[in-house]
Amino acid sequence: MQQLLSIRNLSKSFGSVLVTNDIDLDVPQGQSVGIIGPNGAGKSTLFNLITGVFPPNSGSIQFNGQAISSFSSAKRCRLGIARSFQIPQPFSGMSVFDNALVASAHGAGLSAKAADAAAIDAIEKTGLIEKANVLAGSLTLLERKRLELTRALASQPKLLLLDEIAGGLTDKECQSLIQTIKDIKADGVTIIWIEHVVHALLAVVDRLVVLDFGQIIADGDPEITMASNEVREIYTGIDADA
């Protein structure tokens, strides 16, 4: 199976604090991977390294067979790496459509007609078409989460990074979002999803990675990984044998 993302010996420190510690990770084209771990485990830092927000102290990142560790965030976006943020960050004074258009025109670098089409397609896929002309600042939490997803999709990603996109939603809203992500997966987009709402992850992902103190301590089948004593102890703080 072709590897879309290959990470080798990736480490990142902030001062004396080692946040990402010698990570190796391969993600094949079309796979969906969930990432869990306690607060401070290095999950968001890993996303920031993949997207070029931070440079690594050591190690390498390859995307689609190309070394990208020295590339800017903008260049990585043009190559097909997109993300949503844990806290939605729309252009509040712009419409939903214009938010998506910024992503398709500047994130993906599409020409005017193609950018319009990509923006509309992303809005339709995330269920926001009736809100296309509404100001982003007036959206509900679920709608803002969907707009985060819309903007990421409008940039035409091959790899979509989702950061806590289900957080703060009701069960009904979460189920709706899960279906949308399943549809995106069915379109062939490779997904890496950080999430504390574990049941949402288990409904979508093919594989589960567990981070603790910046290291991968488990990686495999989601149900088997969640059932392991080590993961239960890390995630709940309770000795699984107690």
Supply database-style keywords.
single chain; about 240 residues; alpha/beta; Rossmann fold; 2 domains; 6-stranded mixed beta sheet; 4-stranded antiparallel beta sheet; 9 helices; globular; disordered C terminus
Structure description:
The chain has 242 residues and is of the alpha/beta class. The protein folds into two domains: 124 residues, 3-Layer(aba) Sandwich (Rossmann fold), CATH 3.40.50; 67 residues, no CATH class. The chain has nine helices and ten strands. It has a six-stranded mixed beta sheet, with helices on both faces. The protein has a four-stranded antiparallel beta sheet with strand order 2-1-4-5, covered by helices on one side. Helix 4 crosses helix 5.
Write the layout of secondary structure elements.
Blueprint: E1 3-14, E2 17-28, E3 32-36, H1 43-51, E4 58-63, E5 66-67, H2 73-79, E6 81-83, H3 96-107, H4 112-125, H5 141-154, E7 159-163, H6 171-186, E8 190-194, H7 198-202, E9 207-212, E10 215-220, H8 222-227, H9 229-236
Helix pairs in contact: 3-4, 3-5, 4-5
CATH architecture heading of the largest domain: 3-Layer(aba) Sandwich
| First-residue to last-residue Cα separation | 41 Å
CATH topology of the largest domain: Rossmann fold
Give the radius of gyration. Answer: 18 Å
Instruction: Please state roughly what percent of the residues sit in beta strands, choosing from under 5%, 5-15%, 15-25%, 25-35%, 35-45% or over 45%.
Output: 25-35%
For the record, the CATH class of the largest domain is: Alpha Beta
Count of DSSP helices? 9
- Strand count: 10
Calculate the mean pLDDT score and round it: 93
